[in-house]
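Open question from group meeting: does this chain pack into something compact, or does most of it stay loose? Before anyone orders reagents, we agreed to write out a predicted structure and look at it together. Recording both the input and the output here so the notebook holds the full record.
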Amino acid sequence: MNYIYDITLNFNKNNLYEFYEWKEEDDPEFVLKIPMYKVDLKTFLDLKGNDIIIDKKILESLEDKTEVYTPSTISIIRYACVFACDESTIAIEFDSDGNSYMKSALSIEEEIEVIESSKLIKYSILDYKIKNKNKIKNKFITRNEEETEKYLIKKLESMKKNGEESKLKYIFYEIYNEKLTDIDKIYSKLINIAKNDDNKFCRLKGILYLMENKKIMSNNS
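Structure tokens returned:
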């Protein structure tokens, strides 16, 4: 078994954030020791971009091998591993059935170190199955942009749920410069803007932020 020592990981369940998008509230972990496999590029892309299930034998080889430093003690991650190809790296945590459910990128410096270390070992052939394809978003958006997208969708959903049709019509008119009475069509078009990040995305964001700020100022007056 090959190991990587002294790296920082930020495991997330639903998102794979690059290290420069990490935040303090993520609570990154300082890993003292973690197993490492070297894989070919195709395998690496499968591991990074999809939910997978690894073979039981591989899972058993990882059991209790990852040590994490905490202020009071050394804790254990039951099943975790760093995978490296010739160009990149990723850390994955698995559940007891072999399903990948937490992933972390590495910092540039630590990724370079891992890739250099991997040059000294042979490629491993992993036995795995792809469970869900393309979990990682194909479009490149930053963490802040992703959070903005969620904020916009949440605000629009709230307006629709609370029957604030006048607000939705106002936003639609400000963006499209046309009046539309069908609230379902209005809502659908606005949600589509928020989800697809097209050229009207910034306009939608600006209007909603302005409306929110006016509300805050009104409540404080």
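Observations to bring back to the group:
The radius of gyration is 23 Å.
Residues 143-220 form one domain.
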